[in-house]
Amino acid sequence: MKPLARYRPGRYVPLTLCALIPILIAGCQAWGQTTELQQGSMATGALSHGETVRYTIDADENEFFLGEVDQLSVDVDIRILDPAGEPIAQFSGLGRGPERFSGRTESAGTHTVELLVAGDNEDAAGSYEITLLRHEPVATDPKELADQMMARFDGPESPGAAVRVWRDGETIYSQTYGTANLTYGIPFEPDTRTNIGSTSKQFTAFAIMLQAERGLLSLDDDIRAHIPELPEFDGTIQVRHLVTHTSGLREFLNLLRMTGRRLDRGDWIDRSELIDIVQRQPALQNAPGAEWNYNNTAFGLAATIVERTSGQDFHAFMEDNVFGPLDMTGSMVRPSPRHMVPNMSEGYTPTGDGYRHIGDLGGAVGAGSVYSTIGDLQTWIENYANPRVGTRASIDEMMTSFVLTDGEETGYGYGLFIDEQAGLKRVHHGGADVAHRSMLVYYPEINAGITTQSNHAQFDSDTAFELAEAFFADAMELEEEGDEAGAGDDFDAEDYDPEDFDEFAGRYALDSSPAIIFTFTRDGSTIYGQPPGQERLEMVPVSDSTFRLPGTAASVTFVRGEDGAVAAALLHGGGGDQRATRLADDTEAWEPGAEDLADFVGRFFSEEIETFYTFTVEEGELVMHQHRLDSATLTPGEKDNFAGGGLSFAFERDRNGQVIGFYVSNGRTRDVRFGRVR
Fold first, then answer.
1. Residue 508 forms beta bridges with which residues?
2. How many beta carbons lie within 10 A of that of residue 339, not counting itself?
3. pLDDT, tens only, 254-268
4. Is the pLDDT of residue 14 over 50?
5. Short-list 651, 662, 641, 623, CA closest to 509
6. Rounded Cα gap, residues 474 and 252, in angstroms
7. At residue 153, what are phi and psi to the nearest 5 degrees?
8. How far is CA 469 from CA 316, 362, 509, 554, 602, in A?
9. Residue 392: enclosing H or E segment and its boundaries?
10. Distance between CA 19 and CA 1 in Å, rounded?
11. Could you tell me if 98 and 56 are in contact, meaning their C-beta atoms sit under 8 angstroms apart?
12. Angstrom distance (rounded) from CA 327 to CA 526
């Protein structure tokens, strides 16, 4: 008699009595039992909503492990705990098929892998398979370390990644992983063209510098000299303000999201909309040169200026003046998401029903839209070291931090971030389109560089910085092993007294969106950070003033004012640092009642972006509705201020106290006014 079989495409698995044993064990695990994972062996289990299945990995300090959960019929969230039970990593997002997890141990002992059903569906249940693929010491050889760090993105069922490292003109390491096109099973190769997202901004700035070298524009020019249909604002926006993120213009991607444009679902954006957006802007968000505010609109306009001063489309200009002369044969500007890119990687976002291909952002020329290969990006950086196209003076100016009108440096040059890493000057820029991820780093003092690229939306581009410390360790002033980033040489997290956190505890309003208030608290020996409207998140100290969220790149540093009192918090994340100002201790949280919330109920319209928002009260909370955005329950901040759905709202009253409108912000785009229509 043939055994029973469980079938899914591409795989036949006999279901014998022995195969049923792990499922029975899984049922017990939900009640607290655990199973040890052994490298190379597979365990099968079943999981229902509300249950937690636990597996253990016994590991020494500084070891690497890689595992995979094949989600046969249930969407699983994966959480990794250290021997003390503290979370160190979590993995989720892909609801079907193999999802990989990995970790590096900081201490010896039993590490736990927890599996939970993702989402809020109480009826969700199903089966899975879990396999420990690798368990080994963290590599000391940089090349082997790179292989470990990229292992999550390897294999035929995963979007891929690529790494390339070079120094003094010599390629030290070059490797690709995973798949460039899942539909056709095309592997990621060294000559695969990848969307580098905002890493493209340095190419646009370089094109501006070429035109300045040729006398076809000046960095001091009023941008209206080249795009006269733009409005005249109170301050003059110069060309240099565009490529330094200091123009004061609205950021178009954030603005279009306010209108309900779903960039995460591939909504179309045309380049011509940038000029229309600027024409509708009633006033600048800041005086030109006075504030740094990351801005894709500005770089789109910079590309337009290149076109108007050259008489060529931007993609043709770049081919004739940059890519061609440098023999970057794998690089091109994609004029729109509808244009063909030979030998390209498709970008993929994990969703509940598998990987989804959404496509590239529209209207991104100048701010993004460059497709390139890891070899071409090395060629590009080597032109910084020994210019064959462009002058030494232009490149040096690009790599010099811009100075604001108040004398403060921005840490950003022309299309490039400028900072230091372990004692070396670092010039870099990352990129993120809808799903592609990119990082390009240059260390001019040692003539070395590194790039990481991926077509997986969950890829962490900052991996390039860690790999640089492995490959260029001889030239860097690295901290002693065991020190945390940002920690003092003598800081030991185990010696930190949680009561010392009390001086940081409190409420902090985001400077760019004051309605968004973060709350930091201590409960016994545990420290928490809480974004508005969300659950509080546990944090761990990495210095006497910096705390991070375990398993993420997010952290917060508390800063003092001139009087020594804690004045603000710097929120560190993938999008850069954001400052939040501490609210006075006597500033009580505003808790509006039903009568208060009724003031905000109604329908509002913005002339600037031609968009309606409607507010209702549901179950005692204010809810925002827009016909294409998901409805969002709003959290109150200071009086008449709310936040939710990635937006902050500051309501406006007339002299009689009636709510007549509001100003909405979402970080890079601020104070878009809506007026009440009913």
1. 518, 582
2. 12
3. 999 999 998 877 788
4. no
5. 641
6. 43
7. -110, 20
8. 38, 36, 35, 20, 55
9. helix 392-398
10. 17
11. no
12. 56
CA–CA separation, 360 and 438 (whole Å): 14
What is the CB neighbour count within 10 angstroms for residue 512?
18
**Closest C-alpha to 56, from 76, 29, 89:** 29
How far apart CA 162 and CA 454 sit, in angstroms, is: 6
**What is the tens place of the pLDDT at every residue in 233-255?**
999 999 999 999 999 999 999 99
Give dist(CA 376, CA 389) in Å, integer: 14
Tokens of 413: 């040059």
Tokens of 43: 């365990």
For residue 613 the two structure tokens come to 């928002």
Give the whole-angstrom CA distance, residue 651 versus residue 601: 11
Q: Say if CB 447 and CB 207 are below 8 A apart.
A: no
Q: What is the mean pLDDT of the chain?
A: 89
Comparing CA positions, the residue from 140, 112, 127 lying closest to residue 24 is: 127
Task: Give the start-end residues of each E strand in 338-477.
Answer: 349-351, 354-356, 370-372, 417-421, 424-432, 437-443, 448-454
Tokens of 602: 């109604």
Cβ-based burial of 57 (10 A; exposed 0-12, middle 13-18, buried ≥19) = buried
Distance of alpha carbon 675 from alpha carbon 609, whole angstroms: 12
Tokens of 274: 């940038």
Closest to 102 in 3D by CA, of 57, 59, 149, 138? 149
Q: Residue holding tokens 């390009």?
A: 440
Residue 577 — pLDDT band, cuts 50, 70, 90? confident
Distances (CA, A) of 41 to 22, 47, 264, 286, 288: 12, 19, 38, 59, 61
Residue type, 335: P
Task: State how far the Cα of 617 lies from the Cα of 594, in Å rounded to an integer.
Answer: 8
pLDDT digits (tens, 9 = 90+) for 277-334: 999 999 999 999 999 999 999 999 999 999 999 999 999 999 999 999 999 999 999 9
Q: d(Cα 492, Cα 565) in Å, to the nearest integer?
A: 24
Q: Residue 574's pLDDT band (boundaries 50, 70, 90)?
A: low
Among 290, 293, 340, 292, smallest CA distance to 315 is for 340
Residue 548: enclosing H or E segment and its boundaries? strand 546-548
Indicate the length of the chain as a whole number: 678
Q: 3-class DSSP state for residue 169?
A: coil
Q: How far apart are CA 604 and CA 612, in angstroms?
A: 6
Inter-residue contact 180 to 469 (CB < 8 Å): no
Q: Where are the beta strands (DSSP E) in 16-160?
A: 34-36, 42-48, 52-59, 63-71, 76-81, 87-91, 97-104, 109-117, 125-137
Q: Which residue do the tokens 């109150």 mark?
A: 636
CA distance 8 to 513: 48
